[in-house]
Design a protein that fits this description.
The structure holds two protein chains of two kinds.
Chain A lengths: L2 H4 L10 H21 L8 E6 L10 E6 L37 H21 L10 H28 L1 H13 L21 H23 L4 H38 L11 H17 L7 H8 L8 H4 L9 E8 L2 E8 L4 H26 L34 H11 L3 H10 L30 E2 L1
Antiparallel strand pairs in A: 1-2, 1-5, 3-4
Helix pairs in contact in A: 2-4, 2-5, 3-4, 3-5, 4-5, 4-7, 6-7, 6-8, 6-11, 7-11
Chain B lengths: L16 E2 L3 E3 L3 E6 L4 E7 L9 H7 L4 H19 L5 E7 L2 H13 L4 H18 L4 E6 L10 H6 L2 E4 L8 E2 L17 H5 L4 H9 L4 E2 H6 L9 H17 L2 H12 L6 H13 L6 H4 L4 H4 L14
Parallel strand pairs in B: 4-5, 5-6, 6-7
Antiparallel strand pairs in B: 1-2, 2-3, 3-4, 8-9
Helix pairs in contact in B: 2-4, 10-11
């Protein structure tokens, strides 16, 4: 097989025998994974998709109809910066690592595998959503997200294949073997084992969980290991659309609910999704996504920063002290059943600092949704729960906290749980609304149409040919 | 008891040529990479000659390859210990013809009752034990043109890791001889193969019983080598392995390596050299652990340990 023709790339694949050999074995496994675990029921349909065929502003946004298994997953890195330097940590100012430094091999492999693991997992989580799409526009967006998560898997596999030898090839194989939600071989991170089986879940997932991806990728885009930094920079350009899908998707749900509330106070009567269910989905996905940032106090974060492997969000733009060896960060921790402030050395608090950036970004989404409510004349408001609520990783895991972040008893939490998190009934109700709408220009009753289509096309466009 | 010798042989001083970053003997060469804290140690195998009897060996005296090469190896190891404390890793290579090494082993085995040959074998065994007891990491690098066979295969077994190139176009082979099953006991009284396969003694006997040499795949399957990267991965794997190893705390490595090198039965030697010096007296009290820049002191803190890389 001529890999260089088949795989758009800017990594000199035609000259790189090691990479060719690795990909020749991996590509069939990837396609078989895509066949078994990719979007169900639409593999043979023409979908109007964006394909990256180049890193330039023209090339990365090439739109056309394509059948998903024939999608040209490519390998793209942002162009190299001459004289790139390690931008932070103990080796600040040293030439950037063009090869994996032996002493950081394990740490880097772990970072890349953890990032890579999320990509196929999200495709698996979303594989049955096509059957209940609210419109062809949304169906197309789902598939766009799926194929690009597939490409992001390629991006991480490229790094493993090109820089980690046999270990890397084994890890790349293992990425295709773990399965989201499978108890025997689950995905590494818990948010990627949660079912994502209705479109409200999908929008919340792309809003909150993909947004974690943005912050992780941004931190890795600062990496002193230049191939990783360049890979992540390009991935970020694609990730933006995924968050757009989630952000506007939820906004459209909220808008439609507000419209239906004007018809009938109980929107269930008129087939809408009540705001309290939307709020519970926010609580669920926001809290699971916060876990993805890791422990509040983390020696890994300190080690990765010291080694110059993982920086802070916008490290170069936002900070002047790139060593960060001094200074501290105060956070609330649970001690003897009380929340007390604790001062933590800055480098050990970098997960929490990145999480803080993420929360600020999420708040912007909430503001947009609340504006949608205002625009429809509604006074109700959606909100983000406190970051301590419903956590499974870090300082607050194993404790019970309410939506405002106050410690409460297990009994109190259990008593309130059905008001805070989606219940089986909530999920069943949302599920009951999920009926496919596949007529061009039509949309399901529970969601408002988008304000515009994709790439200049109207909403009334045949985004998927069924 | 063999007959007492009529006369001994003369051991001349070893001839060494050194520069800033090399040290060359007749059969042993050291090449230093001080910035990366490792050294290449290359042993050259014997030349080809018809099998000699005891008298002929005695006439060769200290020019006889097994004696000279191992005296040089002994000297090189001592030199590294005393003069190169910051060199943490020794990459062991060999050059030569496998058959020539196996022929010398057959010669030694055939004459093992001769006083001189017995002394030579004992010297080889002691030198190999010195390697076992050297507080530096050893990687054996098995590449085309190498001759890790018989007595020289002990270098692979004595090393902490063995890397053997797997390339169908450039075969690499290793082989065992009649000397491997007993002539070079370790400090624990076992052969190196028995130590390696302590939990699977059958594998040691299978390796001893193997006819002919092992190619890379056979050696890997028999558990004789640690890693067998192919030609595309080779350079990068070796580079990464070297960089990774030399970045670790030298004291921790000394302890871990001693624990792994001396598995199984304890003797006074293993207790003193393998356990006491390497473990209790070393790791936990050393500045690399508990000093201001030590690993334990810095554990969980934002600062990183800074090691004193000197090894004994």
């Amino acid at each position: 097989m001529n890999l260089n023709e088949r795989i758009p790339n800017n990594v000199n694949l035609s000259e790189d025998k090691r990479l060719q050999r690795a990909l020749e074995k991996w590509l069939p496994n990837f396609l078989s994974w895509w066949h078994d675990m990719g979007p169900e029921g639409f593999q043979e349909k023409d979908v109007w998709l964006r394909t990256a065929i180049d890193v330039g502003s023209e090339g990365w946004a090439h739109f056309d109809y394509v059948k998903m298994p024939e999608y040209r997953w490519g390998i793209f890195l942002e162009p190299a910066q001459p004289d790139a330097k390690v931008g932070f940590g103990d080796n600040f100012g040293a030439p950037a690592y063009q090869e994996v430094p032996g002493e950081f091999r394990n740490a880097l492999r772990r970072i890349i595998v953890t990032q890579g693991d999320t990509e196929p997992a999200s495709v698996e989580q979303q594989r049955r959503l096509g059957a209940t799409c609210p419109s062809l526009y949304d169906l197309r967006n789902l598939f766009q997200v799926n194929v690009e998560e597939g490409r992001h898997l390629w991006a991480m596999v490229y790094l493993l294949h090109a820089y980690f030898g046999r270990d890397g090839r084994d890890e790349a194989d293992a990425l295709l073997e773990r399965r989201s939600g499978n108890p025997d071989k689950p995905s590494i991170l818990e948010a990627f084992n949660q079912p994502c089986d209705d479109w409200l879940n999908f929008y919340a997932f792309t809003m909150f969980t993909d947004r974690d991806g943005k912050y992780q990728l941004s931190a890795l885009a600062e990496s002193g290991f230049e191939p990783l930094a360049r890979t992540c920079k390009f991935m970020l350009t694609e990730e933006e659309h995924h968050m757009f899908v989630g952000d506007t998707g939820l906004s459209r749900v909220v808008k439609r609910t507000a419209q239906l509330m004007k018809e009938n106070e109980d929107v269930r009567e008129v087939g809408g999704i009540p705001l309290d269910i939307v709020q519970k989905y926010i609580n669920f996905w926001f809290s699971y996504s916060l876990d993805l940032f890791g422990g509040e106090i983390s020696s890994n974060s300190a080690d990765f920063f010291a080694a110059g492997l993982k920086g802070r969000f916008k490290e170069q733009e936002q900070y002047t002290d790139h060593i960060a060896a001094e200074g501290s960060f105060t956070m609330m921790v649970v001690e003897n059943g009380k929340l007390v402030p604790r001062e933590v050395p800055l480098r050990n608090a970098l997960n929490e600092i990145l999480r803080g950036e993420y929360v600020k970004d999420c708040e912007k989404g909430l503001a947009r949704w609340n504006k949608a409510l205002t625009d429809e004349g509604m006074s109700q408001r959606l909100f983000l729960p406190n970051i301590r609520f419903h956590r499974h990783v870090g300082e607050y895991a194993g404790h019970n906290l309410d939506l405002d972040g106050n410690l409460i008893s297990k009994e109190e939490f259990e008593a309130k749980k059905s008001e805070w998190l989606p219940t089986k009934e909530d999920r069943e109700y949302v599920g009951s609304l999920m009926k496919p709408v596949t007529e061009v220009g039509k949309i399901a009753n529970w969601i408002a149409p988008p304000t515009s289509g994709i790439k200049g096309k109207p909403f009334e466009f045949e985004y998927v040919r069924l | 008891m063999p007959a007492l010798p009529q006369s001994g042989i003369k051991l001349s001083p070893l001839h060494v040529e050194s520069t800033d970053d090399t040290r060359d003997y007749k059969y042993v060469s050291l090449k230093f990479h001080r910035d990366k804290r490792y050294v290449d140690l290359t042993m050259r195998g014997p030349e080809c000659w018809p099998q000699k009897n005891a008298d002929e060996i005695q006439r060769m005296g200290d020019e006889y390859w097994p004696l000279r090469a191992y005296r040089e190896l002994d000297d090189a190891l001592l030199y590294l210990r005393v003069n190169e404390p910051e060199i943490g890793l020794v990459c062991v290579r060999t050059q030569g013809d496998i058959q020539n090494v196996l022929d010398r082993d057959a010669e030694l085995a055939a004459n093992r009752d001769n006083w001189l040959v017995r002394e030579i074998i004992l010297l080889m065994a002691r030198t190999l034990r010195r390697l076992d007891l050297t507080a530096k990491s050893f990687f054996a690098i098995m590449e085309p043109g190498s001759c890790f066979a018989g007595n020289l295969f002990e270098l692979v077994l004595a090393s902490d890791r063995g890397y053997m190139l797997n390339n169908p176009d450039e075969r690499v082979e290793v082989a065992l001889s009649e000397l491997n099953p007993g002539a070079f006991p370790m400090s624990n009284g076992l052969t190196r193969l028995e130590s390696r396969f302590l939990a699977e003694p059958k594998k040691a006997y299978e390796a001893f019983a193997h006819e002919g040499s092992f190619d890379t795949e056979a050696a890997e399957a028999a558990g004789l080598v640690t890693f067998a990267p192919d030609d595309l991965d080779w350079d990068d794997e070796i580079r990464l392995a070297i960089e990774e190893r030399t970045s670790l705390s030298p004291d921790a490595l000394t302890g871990m390596e001693a624990s792994l090198r001396f598995a199984g039965p304890e003797t006074m030697d293993t207790k003193i050299y393998g356990r006491l010096t390497a473990w209790q007296n070393w790791i936990f009290q050393r500045p690399n652990a508990v000093g201001p820049n030590g690993a334990l002191t810095n554990y969980g803190k934002p600062t990183q340990a800074k090691f004193d890389y000197k090894r004994t």
